[in-house]
Amino acid sequence: MTTDGLPADLELDDLTAQPHPHEPHEGGLNNRLNWLRAGVLGANDGIVSTAGIVMGVAGATSNRGTILVAGVAGLAAGALSMAAGEYVSVSTQRDSELALLDKERRELVEDPVDELEELAGLYVEKGLSEELALRVARELTEHDALGAHAEAELGIDPDDISSPWTAAWASMLSFTVGALLPLLTILLVVADARVPVTVAAVTLALALTGWASARFGYGPWGRAVVRNVVGGLFAMGITYLIGTLLGTHV
Length: 250
Prior knowledge:
Helices cover 78% and strands 0% of the residues. By secondary structure, it is an all-alpha fold. It has one domain. The radius of gyration is 26 Å and the shape is elongated. Helix 1 runs antiparallel to helix 2, helix 1 packs parallel to helix 5 and helix 1 runs parallel beside helix 7. The longest helix has 47 residues.
């Protein structure tokens, strides 16, 4: 066994260059992860914020109409705010990516030799010998100069630029879906069971979104679920307490 963990008698002729079929390698991964992230976060925010609103109002009054108005207003404001925030954030990221790619295109036209040496230097820093790095840089440049430089220098795929509209729609729709759960639960359940049933439904939903966020991010789901549930229950508890105090003094 060598220091890098490979068998000492391993020969390159015995190997085949191929990606793992069970891992994502196709193009468009950045955009898919972008809308998945926006979707999961949107659903989570919809659940927590709307649950906090309706629980706070339920702590102050048992009037179903008042709870409905507050919940719908919170849902609409939150969904539009999430969409606008995602659009602005991802648009800024997209503008930066496009500006960096334009700069790289100019440099490739103005001084291709210097750019080739720069690309080879990046591969040397990653562990290749200078001779191999120059050969790899030359072959990649001949195949797709911009793609090679964008990946090595900037970590950007020119064919997979972030889409602000995709993120905005995913965030708005998922927020709405997430917000409907606590809103409908607290409205449809009888007054005496309203709070405990809503807490149970929200806890289950938060556990699901915590698991989904960890699943999409390839992280441990246990801690993600605990963080999500504890944070959501804390927010609901505080707003319910505030609503109860205001309801008895206002």
